[in-house]
Amino acid sequence: MVGMITSGFGQAVLNPKKATSFYEIPRDWTDAREMLWFIQKRMDLDDKGMENISRFTARTAGMESDFKHWAINPDSQAAGMYQFIETPKNNSVTTAVNRAMANYDRNSKPYPKWLLSLAQHKEVLKLTPQQQTTLFLANIGESGKPGPKSDPLIRRVHAGDQGAEADLYEKIHYRSTKDKPMTPGTIDRLDEWFTGTPQGQNTWPKY
Predict the structure, then answer these.
(1) Domain total for the chain?
(2) CA 66 to chain centre
(3) What are phi and psi of 163, to 5 degrees?
(4) Is residue 203 part of a domain?
(5) DSSP three-state, residue 84
(6) d(CA 21, CA 203)
(7) For the chain, what is the mean pLDDT?
(8) Where would I find the H helices in the chain?
(9) Are the C-beta atoms of 197 and 91 separated by less than 8 Å?
(10) DSSP 172
(11) Quick check: 148 pLDDT over 70?
């Protein structure tokens, strides 16, 4: 059964003493933790295993930007910790905003002010690390509706399948296809962060 926000995994939002994991999303990132809880609630995930989804989130931030929320790729213009793009050919910011709003609507919650602003300016670098993480979780959790394509992979990650973390990154976040395979450099980073990551390497930095 899904735990309430005041119990189990979600209790770390309100009680920092409960947050002891290397991979937990920072305790004071309440927007990001709420979005994680939205995913947990929609998919009816047990509290046990939510740390694994946090770990996937941390690994993605590490792989994409080394946790640099100001990072920008000069070639693709991808920006932020999770390298979102907003161009005529790739509007991943707009897509993520819409998916975040769908989560708040489903849970009868008001949109955060920063999300409303992002819907207008589309500039990820204006967001804090927490806000970028909230956007990432919304995007991953709503991918490919109806019946999000990410759901089977999220369930495997939740169950502790580390191989599924690499698959979730490649197929849902990177969106690798036969016509758009991952670059050799990306594959090297994937191996470093998802298949050969030493315990504790990708802990959240302090901002």
Answers:
(1) 1
(2) 14
(3) -60, -30
(4) no
(5) strand
(6) 9
(7) 83
(8) 11-14, 30-43, 50-65, 92-106, 113-121, 129-141, 151-158, 162-168, 184-190
(9) no
(10) I
(11) no
pLDDT tens by residue, 23-33:
678 878 999 99
Residue 3 in domain: no
pTM of the prediction? 0.84
Residue pair 35/141 in contact (Cβ under 8 Å)? The answer is yes
For residues 57 and 133, the answer to whether their CB atoms sit within 8 Å is: yes
- Kindly state whether residue 207 falls inside one of the protein's structural domains: no
Tokens standing for residue 121: 């300016």
Residues 6 or more apart in contact with residue 151 via CB below 8 angstroms: 43
Q: What is the pLDDT of residue 10?
A: 37
Cα–Cα–Cα angle for 43, 97, 36, nearest 5°?
A: 30
Contact 144, 152 (CB under 8 A): no
* Tokens 């999000």 found at: 148
- Report the pLDDT value the prediction gives residue 122, as an integer from 0 to 100: 96
Q: How far apart are CA 24 and CA 204, in angstroms?
A: 8
Q: What are phi and psi of 44, to 5 degrees?
A: 55, 55
72 — phi, psi (to 5°)? -145, 135
Q: How far apart are CA 36 and CA 23, in angstroms?
A: 13
Beta pairing partners, 86: 91
Phi, psi of 3 (to 5 degrees): -80, 150
Identify which of 9, 53, 24, 21 has the alpha carbon closest to the alpha carbon of residue 151: 53
183 is in which domain, residue-wise?
8-195
Residue 108 is assigned to a structural domain of this protein? yes
